[in-house]
Design goal:
Radius of gyration: 23 Å
Strand order of the largest sheet: 1-4-5
Mean pLDDT: 85
Number of domains: 1
Distance between the termini: 30 Å
Structural class: alpha+beta
Low-confidence stretches: none
Length: about 140
């Protein structure tokens, strides 16, 4: 989470920045959704193969965390399989979807700035949390 203050010259500049963020997030989300579809198919095939092999071998699948180690606060998966990748991509997709919703709501809330007309001499200091405006300070310069 990154919190920063950005200065804008006009309300339209804030709106353009938000529109750009929304567009970029949609693009990133679309790419991850494509990857998710690809890896989901691979993961399902991998699961079926594993089930057949274990069944033929008369063994039970071990669902333990073998092949996973923790280094500090970081989990490292050794010999990652499609299920590991699927889980990671699903998490990223959920995060990007949440970000898109937050950005769209913030942009909606900024509709009033489109109606501001003569704002010469005003600066707009915007407190942003991960690129999402949380507070706008109107500053006379």
């Amino acid at each position: 989470m990154v919190v920063e203050i950005k200065e804008y010259e006009s309300p339209n500049e804030i709106a353009k920045s938000m529109d750009s963020q929304i567009s970029k997030t949609k693009s990133i989300l679309g790419e991850y959704l494509r990857r998710l579809d690809e890896i989901r198919t691979l993961a399902e095939r991998s699961k079926k193969i594993r089930e057949v092999v274990f069944k033929l071998a008369g063994k039970r699948q071990d669902q333990s965390t073998l092949g996973e180690i923790t280094v500090g606060d970081l989990r490292v998966i050794l010999d990652a399989n499609p299920f590991h990748e699927l889980t990671v991509i699903e998490k990223v997709v959920r995060s990007q979807q949440d970000r898109l919703l937050v950005l769209q709501k913030a942009r909606e809330a900024l509709n009033w700035v489109d109606q501001l007309e003569d704002t010469n001499g005003l600066k707009y200091l915007v407190l942003e949390n991960d690129g999402v405006p949380e507070k706008i300070l109107l500053k006379i310069s």
